[in-house]
Design brief:
Length: 160
């Protein structure tokens, strides 16, 4: 069986930044399961996995455009501290959900200057080329429920 649209694939992976820093890995954990073609993983990695079989191992470099996109300076904003009701101390690196014209969005605090808070709505990996080392460990048909929900469920099922 090969990875193709509509199949659940299981992969072990290590994701590294251009400087070699490990950003994420499945090492020491269960493989990552995803429904191929459903947008569960970044487009560049999904494209690289197309047609692979169990036991295939490979490395691939994914450009930002096929990962988390290019950085958009328009997604960086300075807002007054009063926008953060009920938060006693705001620090760099904190993340919040903000309501935007495009719906809910996660923003990261990048600078705190008095009552002015700089927030960045870009994904933390936006603009970064990514390197993946991947091993395909499983491929199967999805259950009807997984197909309907658009993602795989764990061994204990899934509660929406």
């Amino acid at each position: 069986m090969k990875i193709e649209n509509g199949k659940v694939a299981s992969i072990n992976y290590t994701l590294t930044a251009p400087d070699g820093q490990v950003l994420d890995t499945s090492e020491g954990k269960a493989p990552l399961d995803y429904l191929h073609g459903a947008g569960n993983i970044i487009p560049g990695l999904e494209k690289a996995l197309e047609g692979k079989s169990i036991g295939d191992s490979f490395e691939v470099d994914i450009p930002p455009e096929e990962a988390y996109g290019l950085r958009e300076e328009a997604r960086v904003d300075v807002v007054p501290k009063s926008q953060f009701e009920g938060i006693a101390e705001i620090q760099e690196g904190m993340q919040f959900q903000a309501q935007t014209n495009q719906g809910p969005q996660i923003v990261t605090v990048t600078k705190v200057e008095g009552d002015q808070i700089t927030v960045d709505g870009n994904h933390p990996l936006a603009g970064m080329p990514l390197h993946f080392k991947v091993e395909v460990t499983g491929i199967r048909e999805p259950s009807p429920e997984e197909r309907e929900h658009g993602h795989p469920h764990g061994p204990e099922g899934h509660d929406h």
